[in-house]
Amino acid sequence: MRIEEIEVTIDRQGRVIVAVRGVKGTVCLTLTEALERALGGEILQRDMTAEAYEPSSTEVQDINHLEVRKPDL
Q1: Structural domain of residue 58, as residue ranges?
Q2: CA-CA 20 to 30 A from 59: which of 23, 28, 32, 40?
Q3: Per the structure, how many domains does the chain have?
């Protein structure tokens, strides 16, 4: 059984980094869509892993690293 996980890290500058592991194809874009909206920030960088280019049964792309800047309040 393959483990699928989403890891969220917030650094000292308030940047949010989201890492998705164990998901083939572009499924991770769908998995993190609501999280991206909830954070309400601008996506600064999106790095895809090799898994993003592997076929998946639900054809969607893997995100290895997603960095979001939270808007100033």
Answers
A1: 5-69
A2: 40
A3: 1
